[in-house]
Amino acid sequence: MKAIILAAGLGTRLRPITDEVPKCMVPVNGVCIIDKQISNLHKHGITDIVVVGGYKADMLKKHLSVFPDITFIDNIRYAETNNMYSLYLVFQAMEQTECLLMNADVYYDDNIIAGLLSPVNKGISMIACDDGGYIEESMKITLDGKGSINHINKKITEEEYDAVSIDVYKLNEHAVKTLAEEVKNVIEIQGNTNSWTEVALDAIFDVADFKPYVIEGRWFEIDNHEDLHTAEKLFEGDEI
């Protein structure tokens, strides 16, 4: 199992911290967000990790050099593209096999990785999600009558949504190959390099089945200073 971490973004809402470090290196109680993610993956046997950097890429690459199994891809177009383009670069460079996919601004408990990888979920594509309340800024999902995900979008209303995505995904090989084709279509045919990965995901649900994995652990997406303050309270006393 491979893991892909998308970490190219500017993190402008976390300035002045991100004037000095990339967003994924912002510390939560002294622990960089990306270090927590890597620790979570390592705890559950995943060491084949691809990180796509962009903003302050040299700093991030140096920071990650202590992890021998990490492959680093530099999205030099980070300022004019979105995370789908970063994923496109991965698909162009790497074998398309089952993987975990995540954004680098989410701080979460390692038991979420354990749940996604549990034997009962083997071979199933899943979106880790929280059904505990509507979050305006997050991606939301809806389910069809059979319990499969049929939409993911930030604009899904509180009346329509079934759960909130935490931006951690597990894709089987079929889903990866299908997503890679859709990403290629959006980037190369449509010429759209500034879309979220979830735009491509939303387009493949009719041909690639995804189930919700409702989490039990803690998580928080860190986009601004208020988020960072909340995350530090939520994870106070946490050990990496």
Automatic annotation (TrEMBL):
<dbReference type="InterPro" id="IPR050065">
    <property type="entry name" value="GlmU-like"/>
</dbReference>
<keyword id="KW-0808">Transferase</keyword>
<feature type="domain" description="Nucleotidyl transferase">
    <location>
        <begin position="2"/>
        <end position="232"/>
    </location>
</feature>
<dbReference type="InterPro" id="IPR005835">
    <property type="entry name" value="NTP_transferase_dom"/>
</dbReference>
<protein>
    <recommendedName>
        <fullName>Nucleotidyl transferase domain-containing protein</fullName>
    </recommendedName>
</protein>
<dbReference type="Pfam" id="PF00483">
    <property type="entry name" value="NTP_transferase"/>
</dbReference>
<dbReference type="GO" id="GO:0016779">
    <property type="term" value="F:nucleotidyltransferase activity"/>
</dbReference>
<keyword id="KW-0548">Nucleotidyltransferase</keyword>
<dbReference type="InterPro" id="IPR029044">
    <property type="entry name" value="Nucleotide-diphossugar_trans"/>
</dbReference>
